[in-house]
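Table S2 (continued). Query chain:
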Amino acid sequence: MPVNYGVIAAYAVGIILLFILGRIFVFPMKFILKLLYNALIGGIVLIVINLLGGLVHYHIALNVVSALIVGTLGVPGIIFLVVLKLIFKL
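Corresponding output:
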């Protein structure tokens, strides 16, 4: 049974390309997972602030801008929104 070196080379090139593509897609997935984690934690804290703040008539609006800030920054984004709310008394 003769060995076909062309097929072996094609498999090797395919495995190398698969490895390179896997490496390319791992970084965006880590970024997306971190963004989802920040959004989840930030959203939970924002809901808690709104629930507890309802007792003293303090709330932070849930809109696209606040969701983007909390989603990208996480807990520091919530602190940023609270500080903005206190400064501008919106």
